[in-house]
Amino acid sequence: MERKTIVMAKLSAENTSWVGDELPDWENVIYTVDDPTASLHLAVNKGREANAYLTYIIQHYDNLPSTVVFLHSHKDGWPEAWHTDVKDYNNVISVQKLRLDSVQNNGYINLRCVPVPGCPDEIQPFRDPPEGHRASEHATEAAWKYMFGNVDVPKVIGVACCSQFAVSRKQVLSRPRADYERYLKWLMETPLDDAVSGRVLEYFWHMIFGQGPV
Fold first, then answer.
1. d(Cα 12, Cα 42) in Å, to the nearest integer?
2. Spatial distance between the Cα atoms of 166 and 64, rounded to a whole number of angstroms
3. Region 132-150: what's the mean pLDDT?
4. Among 47, 165, 168, 191, which one has the highest count of C-beta atoms within 10 angstroms of its own C-beta?
């Protein structure tokens, strides 16, 4: 049977036992971001879930499962899981309904089907005039150039929010480990606060994993 793994970031106060209890056919790798003594923890609590996602890929690059689901720590309910668009906002149902063949065929599947927020044009790095409240949009141009090493910054980026998605091993391996190390380096070194840096990655994941900007 092909291996499949759920990757997650959690706070020490959060109970994520539901993952193993209700999705027993999935392996799970759950990083406790605010407890350096936890068996799985991060070097620094910075960058929200993006830190855990990138850390997992870097640490497991040579032994990835066939399918990886990157998931938030809350099981269900409003408002915590508002972005999970299945019955009762339930991430267990969301994972159970995931078609693994689609992940393998497409390489990347966003677990959110409702297009807003995010589509069709959430991030416009060259918006004129700029809108002061869009901090992650303002950071996008410089982040793109650092992470992707080119100046071909998209004029529009649109994808359904909110950093819950599935990828195939083949798609992850289509980039060298050094790429993911560079993304993590940006996340660790940026002076942007977590809300902004994490949101920059939120609108980069689909492009990192082979999709177009919109």
1. 12
2. 13
3. 97
4. 47
Long-range contacts of 37-45 (CB under 8 A, 24+ apart): 38/12, 42/9, 43/188, 44/188
Q: What is the DSSP-derived secondary structure letter of residue 157?
A: B
pLDDT, tens digit, for every residue of 85-123? 899 999 999 999 999 999 999 999 999 999 999 999 999
Q: How many whole angstroms separate alpha carbon 38 and alpha carbon 34?
A: 9
Question: Which residues have a Cβ under 8 Å from the Cβ of 98 and sit 6 or more positions away?
Answer: 69, 109, 111, 166
Selection from 110, 68, 87, 100 nearest residue 205 by Cα:
110
Q: Phi and psi dihedrals of 109, rounded to 5?
A: -135, 125
Tell me if 48 sits within 8 A of 40, measured CB to CB.
no
| Pairwise CA distance, residues 149 & 104, whole Å | 28
The length of the chain in residues reads 214
Quick one: pLDDT band at residue 80, thresholds 50, 70, 90? confident
Kindly state the tokens that stand for 127: 């918006």
Using CB atoms within 10 Å of the CB of residue 37, give its burial: 0 to 12 exposed, 13 to 18 middle, 19+ buried: exposed
Residues ≥6 apart with Cβ < 8 Å to 38? 12, 31, 32
Contacts of 53 (CB under 8 A, 6+ apart): 7, 9, 70, 163, 201, 205
Cβ 114 vs Cβ 160: under 8 Å: yes
